[in-house]
Amino acid sequence: MSRVIGVASVKGGVGKTTIVTNLATTLSKMGYKVLAIDTNITGANLGLHLGVSSRNILTIHDVLKNSIDIKEAIYKHQLGFHVLLGGIYLEDLNNTKMSVFKEKLNSIKKEYDIVLLDCAAGLGDEALNAINSSDELLVVTNPELPSVADAYKVVEYAQNNWLPISGIVVNKSKDGKYQDINLKDVEEILGKKVLQSIPEEKEVEHSVNLKKPVVNMFPNAKSSVSLQKLAYKLVGKEYKEEKTFIQKILGFFS
Ligand SMILES: Nc1ncnc2c1ncn2[C@@H]1O[C@H](COP(=O)(O)OP(=O)(O)OP(=O)(O)O)[C@@H](O)[C@H]1O
Ligand SMILES: [Mg+2]
């Protein structure tokens, strides 16, 4: 059975797109048939994270103009999963109707094990159409009070609308000393368990700039391991870390 997982937050820049590209890569490597969709139509950038230009390809904007079949705009990425990207120009937005998205998605979702929706930040029309097209939500927050307070709005919306939350993800976690809000605080504020925390690491920023998911570029970085753990948890499987030779040696000294 297919699962449509909306990756959502009210605050922008918390790491939704980063999480989508890394989950898609990991789940695809695990053998799942995955489709990642950029539903952030006013700020589409999934293609930029994945090194794919949306110029000269069909995009979600074409789908939302009702001008083409959704299948025509889905492409296979070299990392194994399928993508439905967004146009990055202002004029791409002309005549798009996000309200047709759910129906379009429903026509193809059964062809995938997992569909990941990279949602727009907030709870405006654009984000809500994606959230309401999801079977479950991954709510992303950073360990900062404004971000967690915003995340509560998504949690509340999901609860009011009987939408299951598959987990809270705390991204850009900092080392103990500077992490003023810890995971317990997040759980207490949101009334939900944190499924995974992902450290803030230069490797993530660097791989975004290199237009490759960090799990692909730096598979042994702490952030990569956390992102892979998140993917395994989402499908109820146990993650076993593959240690490099150096890590095994260092393990003897720690
Ligand atoms: N764990 C992390 N460590 C360091 N940098 C990170 C981490 N996660 C994300 N970033 C950086 O934060 C920035 C925002 O990430 P991203 O684009 O994934 O957020 P977003 O929630 O999708 O943003 P938007 O709301 O604008 O769509 C990027 O520059 C990315 O490199
Ligand atoms: Mg994004």
Instruction: Provide the helix percentage.
Output: 25-40%
Give the N-to-C terminal Cα separation.
Answer: 44 Å
Please name the CATH architecture: 3-Layer(aba) Sandwich
* Tally of distinct domains: 1
- Based on DSSP secondary structure assignment, what is the total number of beta strands? 8
Query: Average pLDDT across residues?
Result: 94
Oligomer type: single chain
Q: Proportion of β residues?
A: 15-25%
- Largest sheet report: 8 strands, mixed
CATH topology: Rossmann fold
User: Which ligands appear in the coordinates?
Assistant: adenosine-5'-triphosphate, magnesium ion
Order of helices and strands: EHEHHEEHEHEHEHEHHHH
Features:
254 residues; alpha/beta; Rossmann fold; eight-stranded mixed β-sheet; 37% helix; binds adenosine-5'-triphosphate; binds magnesium ion
Can you describe this structure in just a few lines?
With 254 residues, this protein is of the alpha/beta class. It is built from eleven helices and eight strands.
Structure description:
This protein has eleven helices and eight strands. The protein is of the alpha/beta class. α1 crosses α10. The termini are far apart. The structure holds adenosine-5'-triphosphate and magnesium ion.
Layout of helices and strands:
Blueprint: E1 3-8, H1 16-29, E2 34-38, H2 46-49, H3 60-64, E3 75-76, E4 82-84, H4 101-106, E5 114-118, H5 125-131, E6 136-141, H6 145-160, E7 165-173, H7 183-190, E8 194-199, H8 202-209, H9 214-217, H10 222-234, H11 245-253
Parallel strand pairs: 1-5, 1-6, 2-4, 2-5, 6-7, 7-8
Antiparallel strand pairs: 3-4
Helix pairs in contact: 1-10
The structure holds adenosine-5'-triphosphate and magnesium ion.
Magnesium ion binds next to helix 1.
